[in-house]
Amino acid sequence: MTTQTSTAKRPIVFVHGLWLHAESWNPWLEFFRKNGYEAIAASWPGDAATTEATRRNPGAVAGYGVNEIAEHIAGQLKSFDRKPILIGHSFGGLLVQNLLGRDLAAAAIAIDPAPIKGVPELPFAALKSAFPVLGNPFNFKRAVSLTEAQFRFGFANAVPEAEARALYQQYAMPAPARPLFQAATAMLNPSAATKVNVANASRGPLLFIAGGADNTVPPVLVKSAARRYRNSPAVTELREFAGRGHSLVIDSGWQELAEFSLGWITDKNG
After folding, report:
1. Residue 1 has what pLDDT?
2. What is the CATH number of the domain that holds 220?
3. Residue 2 resides in a domain
4. Residue 60 belongs to some domain of the structure
């Protein structure tokens, strides 16, 4: 990763979640660069250079958990001369909370974030979305791919069928199963990998974005996560986008979220 220090604006780092590649952020990168930001998309350990290359070698991403992925991304943040702003989706939304809570970022936006430790709700839709992984305990150390039907339910339920198919063909790829098992067992594990520092009073601003029609991370989970920060005086805000599913960062409505995120960043960080 290279940096450019000529801009007065903080760099922005995008963090993808399960079943997507850093390439999924390409429209966002172009949008933020046009608005004067240095913007890059972080990789996860094992990610190949492209979605297609990762599909051809799924074993490379297998076995990694939340801590290993967070450290991999933290290493990438060290190349900047000042703390970046983080934008993460799904498990990327959990990861940016991890990094913000450790004061490794200036601010963060968590879009439909995977549940952090302390979020007790278990909506049926979220369980159904996770079942392709959690339904087989032998998946723990494996990389798992979604079928088109599973992707349709978990990601693209709020877009037309033709768009859902196109999104699956363009973006879906294998993902490590371990993070989902770690999230599912977090309530039973005092040192769960999904634990974040919700009490950090000196951290930067944090924005939660929920998709109102999301099956994988229903709004109740996002709102519950936001409540976990209630004892910190640091800025924590929540915005829900009605009718949007888990594909909200990659589908045809992505720019609405990008524009809102840009406005929030401008307001909070300049």
Report:
1. 42
2. 3.40.50.1820
3. no
4. yes
| Structural domain count of the chain | 1
% of the chain at pLDDT higher than 90: 96
Query: What pTM, to 2 d.p., does this model score?
Result: 0.95
DSSP, collapsed to helix, strand or coil, labels residue 171 as: helix
Domain coverage including residue 258: 12-269
Residue 269 is predicted with a pLDDT of: 76
Residues contacting residue 128 through CB under 8 Å, at least 6 positions apart? 153, 215
What pLDDT, on the 0 to 100 scale, is given for residue 181? 97
Query: Which string of b and e fits 180-218 if b means at least 16 CB within 10 Å?
Result: bbbbbebeeeeebbbbbebebeebbbbbbbbbebbbbbb
Element (DSSP H or E) covering residue 207: strand 206-211
CA distance 201 to 19: 33
- Amino acid 111 reads I
Question: Does the pLDDT of residue 44 top 50, yes or no?
Answer: yes
Is residue 7 a part of any domain in this protein? no
Whether 4 maps to a domain, the answer reads no
Residue 136 Cα to chain centre, angstroms: 24
